[in-house]
Amino acid sequence: MSDIDVDFFLKTLKQLTTNSNLDFVIDEKHQLQFLEEEIKYLRGFLKSTEKKRNEHLEVMKLVKQIRDVVSEAENIVELFVSHAFKADVSQLQNYKKKKNKKKKKKKIEAIREHQKHLSLDLKSVKGEIKTLTAEVKKIYDQNMYDIIME
């Protein structure tokens, strides 16, 4: 994953948290916002190190770890969203042709209920992100490697 890919993922998260009124997104909004804020901070570090990252092995390793964890988070979010949309679209298509409005409404409610059981499981990346954020904070606080927060 490149720095540009991190930017695109941040835009996706922003769109999900600000422009979406889909139930399955609303239910997970707090996790998506957490992810967006933490990745924004880590993206700032990537930007701060663009010119100096190849000078220090520790910084190079940290940059790689950040990119890897952001890529993993992106995969988890994409999988969650695609599963939710897939469940919604496929089940709605089956019931579009039904003339009975009561049955149709009931089915839509069932689909929404199913979506509530879909959960965004970020446990695996949350810990990694917090660890990386702490490392970045330490670098900034101790002014290590002459890296200054932008």
Automatic annotation (TrEMBL):
GO BP field: defense response
Domain Disease resistance N-terminal: 6-98
Signal sequence region: none
Domain of life: Eukaryota
Keyword Nucleotide-binding attached: yes
Residues in coiled coil: none
A GO molecular-function annotation: ATP binding
Transmembrane segments: none
One Pfam family linked to the record: Rx_N
Keyword Phosphoprotein attached: no
InterPro entries: RX-like_CC, Rx_N
Keywords: ATP-binding, Nucleotide-binding, Plant defense, Repeat
Name listed for the protein in its UniProt record: Disease resistance N-terminal domain-containing protein
Source organism per UniProt: Rhododendron griersonianum
